[in-house]
User: Fold these one by one.
Assistant:
Number 1:
Amino acid sequence: MNAHAQTSADPGRAHSLRLAVLLATYMQSANLPLPNAVLRLIQGTLSMTDDQAGWIFTAYLAASAITLPIAQWLAGRLGLKLVYQAALAVFVLGLLLATVATTPLQFIAARIIQGLASGVLAPLSMAIAMETLAPEKRMKFGATWTAIVLLGIVSGPSIGGWIAEHFDWRPIFYISLPLSAYIFLVVALLLAEKKPEKAPSFDFFGFGSFTLALIGLQMLLDRGERLDWFDSPEIWIEALACGLGLYLFMVHVLTSKTHFLNKRLFRDRNFVLSTLIFFAVGFVLLSTMALTSPMLDEILGYPPDTTGALTIPRGIGLVGAFVLMGWVPERFDRRLFVAAGVALVIFANGLMLDYSPLMDWSPVAVAGAIQGIGIGLLMPALTKVAFSTLDPALRAEGTGLFNLSRVYGSTLGVAIVQIFFFNNTQAMHLALAANVTPYRAAAHGGTASMSLPALEGLNHMITHQAAFIAVIGQFKILLVAMLVVSPLVVFLRKPIPAN
């Protein structure tokens, strides 16, 4: 007997179970950007370099991208309830290890553990909730689930910033502990274990080759700057691993009859185009947050609670637009809302190019709110367009790939903006410093000699100015990413109205 059959006679049990897994969904997505507003505090406490700080996000994302495709297979082999509770326990272990970490390596390892568990919790939370719903209600709940994921991403920094400002950065991970205990208890009491009569098959070769390519690319991007790129043998090894994994995966997809990416998915134009747009949304959203919070905290000097609070307008705009989309009648063409959402995200990223070291908090709040509204309009409409023309038999696999595209987009986006940020900061520092000499100071009424404190202050000012210019350069990259995918909206077919 499935969970829907068991809970249909007891709506209270079904509601409690759905609430628990929605809380789990919010918790795992909020923990991804949770340290975003307190990076400076974490770096100072753990003596963490800038490139190591980048691993705080990419380690979590890359780890979740590895376990996400295999989560359903694990549940089918070992049982949904057992795997879910085990993932929850591993997630709690990662939280506890993060609170006691004393070195960068320990903290990054804790984030990897959190990410591995998150990649299992996210799809299985949705699977549990879907089992408690009648088929006709599942599509609407899918939009709610996506809203919870995005809400967690945009609200995580505000929670972390407030806690760190009033207490310390370590307690930001404590808030998930009582939630985890509640979720574990509800699942233990209300979810009946279910194992399929026949264990599901899984394409381990395809999964392994794809994972090899992903890990090789991630390591190359994250360690390339530190190791001076291809002057290091390690980077060559990582590049070869990425190339080999990608080659094996492509050959496997083209020649094998069964693999974990169903080729029939790529015959549906709407699904393919929507997945590419969703990839770009993942690329832009988390990268924007990964740039904005350090800009406010480290360059403009805002305290952690203010830095975190400035992510709230983005969350309000996102949730408000999501709620609005729930009231839009089916007769309205969803492609129009996809186009409007893409346009608003592009407009918001354009506003970010006008950021200035002399600005107050309002431009950040306005741009964030507009971006949130755009994503809130875009996501439910894009989901509807993506799956309306897809064969119902492929929707389960399509959902996994659709959500996987956002995770991969986020992973790649954060890694790329960090690389260009470090490179551009160094280049701009050299360019600005070349124009600051004792002779120029004398020409403008100063003295040709400067004291050591004055030189240190001048270097500090140049460093901040160079970093700010580099941040604006990364916002340009994100703007270009959305501009590149925007023409795809024109080629979307009109969604098939729901029965």
Note: The chain is about 75% helix and 0% strand.
Number 2:
Amino acid sequence: MQLEAKNLGFGYHKNNWIFKQISLTIEAGEVVGLTGNSGCGKTTLAKVLAGYEVPWEGRVKLNGKAGSVSGYNPVQLIFQHPEKSVNPRWRIRDSVNEGWQVDQELLYRLGIEESWMDRWPNELSGGELQRFCVARALSPDTKFIIADEMTTMLDAITQAQIWEVVLALAKERNMGILLVSHEEKLIQRICERVINLEAVQKNCESEIKDFNTQQGGVFVTQLE
């Protein structure tokens, strides 16, 4: 399984490109970092890769096939701000089960309490709500996770707990992960290689490879 972007270009206004000629590949089971200064297009690229936006040029291919996804999207995007990712008029139980029936074991592993399920989004903290967004994205049909500053807003303990679960499931299921982040310690801890979006756009050497990472295990101190 492979997620591939070939010569992608996109913008929000006519003749105002956010990026052009972006090509990258993420393999199943691989953890890749995506870095670059604020405003360079990382979140926009994440949206295009996950199908939230249609590229102006180029293609996104999943396992060699391009085209729109019908039904559950095997490329799941988790945003930094969970309150923007859930329907405020739905109780949490309805939101988290929107794409698939989330199993109790996963909820337990993410530290989600049963009593939270019947609450409204505004009754939960940011960390509690983000746990639900992560659970919702981790369907057995998910092949790639795009984590756009997924744990940046969270305390170190919660960050570690969420990443422990995500990395363990990625290993079990051979899922690929694209981590969009400014957090150097986190990137160095879990990524096998890093793509610098600005370097790609300038046709420079774009990757830092062969990080000496050791995935798994508690790494709270790495995130503090």
Note: The longest helix spans residues 156-173.
